[in-house]
# Entry
Amino acid sequence: MDEARLSGEDSGSPIGNRISCYRHAPPPHTPGFARPGPISPVLLLLLLLVPAGPAWAQKAPKVTATTAETAPIAREVNLTGTVTSPDVARVSTAVGGQVTEVHIDSGDRVAKGEPLVSLDRELAELELQRERASVAEAEAELADARRRLEEARRLAAEENIPTSELRSREAEVRIQEAALARLQAQAAHQEERVSRHRIDAPFAGVVSRKLTAAGEWISPGDAVVELVAMDRLRLDFPAPQSYYPRIDTDTRVTVSMEALGERRLEARVGATIPVSDPEARTFTVRVYPEADDLAITPGMSANATLHLATGREGVVVPRDALIRYPDGRVTVWTVAAENGQAKASEHLVETGVSFDGRVEIRSGIKAGAQVVTRGNEALEAGQAVRVAGQE
# Structure
């Protein structure tokens, strides 16, 4: 073996670099350091046979891998719909009259029973006073009729009055009682009319539109305010009629909305409304978000993903494990140990449905294979790799 090779001076080889640590001795004047003797041939041979450190491990690319597994296959159905309110009303008046005051404006939040609009009630209150006076008059006449009936009964007991007179006074009392009841009902009716000159909120909500102003004359049935309930909001999605038998209250739903940014909400199907649109051939899926106090309002658009069970199982991998080529090929890289070293190999696969960030693999790999999900863009067949978490 050549002396230059043994001394490690051969063009920067790893072995030469390793041996050079034995060749250089400290200066003779270094105190307490003995000059080493010649290198043993046996030691030199061992140095030549030992691999040059874990250079392959340092050069192998690092990848992230996971296991292909067997799981129930679901189909994702994407729908676009609208946020709706359970209560939207054009609040109208039951009586006619001139508007004296509007207590709210568009955008105001109101509680149930809070006044919205007041009408001029002066004439109605005068009518109520007349009805109440009639009631008082009828009460007095009834009291007098009852008094005279008692007198007749005492006289009849003494046989000082004809029986017909007694029966006549009894009838008079019944007539007065009926008249009083009629006048009391009229007074109650007028009292209710007076109260309806103030239009109150039928439920809590937000005033979306104010439809009248002070000084206007409104007639019974005219809308004065549009009110929208803001609690228990739901989302309505038109869905193709072919999915109707497969959607029920157990169907898993995720919802996203532009107003909520990247946030995705879990939701539940509240009802499927079996009234198809004869033109579009759709029915309505009504969905309720699980979260409360969302910053949403009726009329906003929403997107929903329905996860429909297919009733079968298959091999699934994360979506990131797929490599798609311009010619339509789809491949998956797997990692397997060969002689103690992880090696990468590429497999042409046939894909099925996508759901929950995973993809069904119908052929090409089997359950249990280690598939590469990160770092698979520039791999080569048979290339050594380092698997994250398994170094």
In short: Residues 198 and 294 are 33 Å apart (CA to CA). The mean pLDDT is 84.
